[in-house]
Amino acid sequence: MLQQFNLYIIIVLIVLLLTVSGGFFAYHRIASADIALLEQQTVTYRLAVDEQTRTIETILADAAKLATANKALSERMLHTETEFAAEWSAINELDLMSGGSLDDMETRANDVFGKSIDQLQKATSR
Q1: CB 109 within 8 A of CB 94
Q2: CA distance 61 to 56
Q3: Predicted local confidence at residue 95, as pLDDT
Q4: pTM greater than 0.90
Q5: 4: exposed, middle or buried (C-beta count within 10 Å: 0-12, 13-18, 19+)?
Q6: pLDDT on residue 100
Q7: Could you tell me which residue, 89 or 54, shows the higher pLDDT?
Q8: Dmax of the chain from CA atoms?
Q9: Separation between Cα atoms, residue 113 and residue 110, nearest integer Å
């Protein structure tokens, strides 16, 4: 009877050992699959972060170029407005509304126009 009891205990222990081994094997396979999935996600996230980093660097470089171009444009616009004001001043100096005959106004206008043409030719000649 004791031998039979020992036999049952050994069989139960072997079954328990196989059950624990099978459980560990299943756990190991599931954990390995989870680790592989997490590694794949890590690679994907690293690629996304690298791409976003390059995008940010590109945006910053473009912003610097845009700031430089915007400054140059503002300076050109200021220069153009200054020239426009000077041209209006020159037109006002013609004093077309003052008294005098039409012939005098025409002569003065022709003189001023001739001077401006001469100045333009001097400015554009090499």
Answers
A1: yes
A2: 9
A3: 63
A4: no
A5: exposed
A6: 63
A7: 54
A8: 148
A9: 5
Burial 105-125 (b: 16+ CB within 10 A, else e): beebeeeeeeeeeeeeeeeee
Question: Half-sphere exposure (CA, 13 Å, Cβ side) for 69?
Answer: 6
Taking the C-alpha atoms of residue 27 and residue 34, their distance in angstroms, rounded to an integer, is 10
Q: How far apart are CA 122 and CA 126, in angstroms?
A: 8
> For residue 99, what pLDDT is reported?
58
User: 22: which 2 tokens?
Assistant: 């099978």
Question: 65-81 pLDDT, tens per residue?
Answer: 999 999 999 999 999 99
- What percent of the chain lies above the pLDDT cut of 90? 60
Long-range contacts formed by 112-117: CB under 8 A, 24+ apart = 116/90
Element (H, E) at 105: helix 102-124
